[in-house]
Specification:
Layout (H helix, E strand, L loop, with lengths): L1 H11 L1 H10 L4 H10 L3 E4 L4 E3 L7 E7 L2 E6 L5 E7 L9 H4 L5 E4 L3 E7 H10 L1 H27 L2 H18 L3 E2 L2 E3 L4 H8 L3 H13 L3 E4 L2 E4 L2 H8 L14
Antiparallel strand pairs: 1-7, 2-6, 3-7, 4-5, 4-6, 8-9, 9-11, 10-11
Length: about 250
């Protein structure tokens, strides 16, 4: 029974291991240590918060299915999404050291996740220095993504930002085996897209229609199909350099 539970958990963590193993070799002992550190299996409904600003979490949460987002709310109630989290992403690994959350993480769709108590992560990082560097690498890649987000919001037009976002989501889902042939599931509302792109939902609709008319994408029933990858990349001025998709010793 225990072996079955471990196998089931390992399958849930496959996207996370895929992210790590794309960038460096992960030892069997390191993989086993991560699996044994997992505790809670979690479920979140669309719109529910995984972590709330001001919280002092005692665990880190790793998304295993669905889409979540890192966001801040202004006193006016306006929301700015700063990152979209996919299966295989730790949404609050930084809380292990920062302790208090300075933003929230919410579910954009129904999500499942696994909780890792900080105490367990402390033991892992003390025993496995290479694995510690790999977890650090994941937070650095998150930071690289934030820099790209900032460039998009500051310098690119709405159609360019939208094209870039579709390119990023496809590439990140492809890494973990959840996208292929330039097609992927993306059941996110246009309101959420607007909060991520810094525009209204009405504007999102107009921009998506523009990309459709240019035969760059289709987005129907929660599935995005990229019709011309090269032109979409050019439109969004997208480069995957910030994702650091290189396997080398860390």
């Amino acid at each position: 029974m225990i072996a079955e539970q471990i196998f089931g958990l390992e399958k849930q963590l496959d996207p996370f291991f895929a992210r790590l193993q794309l960038r460096d070799t992960l030892g069997l002992d390191e993989k086993r240590a991560i699996i044994q550190s997992a505790r809670d299996r979690l479920h979140f409904s669309s719109g529910e918060d995984l972590v709330v600003e001001g919280d002092r979490p005692m665990r880190c949460v790793l998304v295993t299915s669905g889409f979540a987002c890192r966001y801040r709310l202004l006193p006016s109630g306006e929301r700015q999404i700063m990152a979209i989290h996919l299966p295989g992403d730790f949404v609050d690994l930084h809380s292990f050291l920062l302790k208090e959350m300075d933003h929230s993480v919410g579910a954009l769709t129904e999500c499942t996740a696994v909780g890792f108590p900080h105490e367990s992560l402390l033991q892992v990082t003390e025993r496995f220095p290479h694995l510690t560097r790999m977890l650090w690498l994941m937070t650095l890649i998150d930071a690289a993504g934030h820099r790209e987000w900032l460039i998009g919001l500051g310098l690119l037009s709405a159609p360019q930002r939208t094209a870039r976002l579709f390119c990023e989501i496809y590439k990140r889902l492809e890494i973990v085996g959840l996208a292929r042939d330039h097609e992927f599931r993306f059941p996110v509302t246009q309101v959420a897209m607007g909060d991520a792109l810094g525009i209204s939902a009405v504007h999102v609709n107009r921009v998506v229609q523009e990309l459709r008319q240019q035969d760059l994408i289709t987005w129907e029933r929660g599935t995005v199909r990229i019709l011309d990858w090269s032109r979409l990349v050019a439109t969004g001025q997208f480069s995957d350099r910030y994702l650091h998709l290189v396997r080398e010793p860390r």
